[in-house]
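Protein in question quoted in full.
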Amino acid sequence: MTRLLLLRHAKAEPLAGHASDHDRPLSAEGVAAAREVGAWFRGHGLAPDLVLCSTARRTRETWRLAAEGGGMAGVDTRFVASLYETSVSMMLDVVRGAAPPDGTVLVVGHEPTMSHAVFHLSGRRPMAFRPGTVALIEWSVSAPGSPFDPGSGSLVVVRAPGESIGLDDRFGTAGRGAR
């Protein structure tokens, strides 16, 4: 099974008072949400084998806090400048070039790339991809084609801070929102 987790950075401080958009830190709400998503990863056995993270401060902080919250401090993490202000195809080029053949990759990035990637890979439009939202897409090893081809993945769950919209009974939320 190949898995791709797409995590939009948690809520950031407004641009005012910061040198650039790239340098914005997480807000207090974002700090809590990042820790919460890490605990959610741990609770569902979703520790990634590899993390590809934008170099923006808010994405780096989101991953650091999620890793702490989920007990994932030793995960192979690569900070990739090209994941900031990128397209879906450029993001997938980064993933293809780094992904293990069978494992779980987490990309920590930005909108609109995250929600567009979900649609591109699964053919399903996620609901609003708010800050701190994560989506899990899976591919069967025996599936035709290759992972990351358009429409080739199965969207398993979309989780925003405080809720999950499960599309799979493994998450106990199939067809409903859970708080």
Remarks:
- The radius of gyration is 15 Å.
- Strands lie at 2-8, 50-54, 76-80, 104-109, 134-139, 154-160, 163-166, 177-178.
